[in-house]
Specification:
The protein is 62% helix and 2% strand. It is mostly helical and 339 residues long. α4 packs antiparallel against α7. The longest helix has 29 residues. The relative contact order is 0.12. It binds fe (ii) ion (2 copies). One fe (ii) ion (FE2) binds next to α6 and α7. One fe (ii) ion binds next to α6 and α7.
Length: 339
Amino acid sequence: MYTQGLDIPKGETSIPLGSGESPEAARFDAIMAADEKIEPKDWMPEGYRKTLIRQISQHAHSEVIGMQPEGNWITRAPSLRRKAILMAKVQDEAGHGLYLYSAAETLGVSRDELVEQLLNGSAKYSSIFNYPTLTWADIGAIGWLVDGAAIMNQIPLCRCSYGPYARAMIRICKEESFHQRQGYELMLSLARGTPEQKAMAQDALNRWWWPSLMMFGPHDTKTDADGMKSQHSEQSMRWRIKRVSNDELRQKFVDVTVPQAEYLGLTVPDPDLKWNAETGHYEFGPIDWEEFKNVVAGNGPCNAKRMKQRRAAHENGAWVRKAALAYAEKRAKRQAAAA
Ligand SMILES: [Fe+2]
Ligand SMILES: [Fe+2]
């Protein structure tokens, strides 16, 4: 899930559906009411535009930073088959970043600006990628749990009100489903392997379970004992950017994933986890929101490392951008001369 911490820009907490003040605003309202799509050239409230730019770019940054914890295992994959799968998966994530930066650009912001916000630390990315990948089993756990949680979050986004974002999400979800399956299949191989391999799979589940549940973001249907409640969900729901609450998505994820862990013969690291036959859902223990806040604030185990590596990659790629620009200029000149 790459959309945690949905942010509404400060001072825009009101609900500016168009309210019929102008024909454009009335049209925006009508499109919302009919559950149709807003397209780039349509009029839209400034808060809607800003919210989308923030969410889509945060999502794009997450795809790009998310390549790091897995990319550093490509050279250590245990077989050619696993290496090919992991390379394809990591490349997909780069592609997701591209679709999403392109979708954000249709809202009138440049990719350069968005990348600058990531590099100077003013834009966020999903906190899940600030955890380390310690063993090969982590690659399985990430595919199974992190991509699994991402799908849960992203399927409703395929129906979001902004056309370019919704269409990008349809492609992304198809690829995420491959990511989830390859992760689960990797976990299955380890779980059926030697006792050491099974222990490695259990250890990865122990470390990735809670951060995966945090990926859905703070509560938005109730306030936790510690006052954790998402600030932004209500407005995004009205704009049909968000369609299902964080808590509902998290519950769905737990309900789907617990039987998968049982099939693997692994134990979910939650002593409070139990099936409730009346509600038809699993009940689970409290989430450590202090940890979440701490990682979002930049103090996770790998925040500094991830940013350092991203900045270095950006600097090392400067010659590619320069060459691409020079080529584009040369081509434009040639075309102008021919015309
Ligand atoms: Fe992705
Ligand atoms: Fe993925």
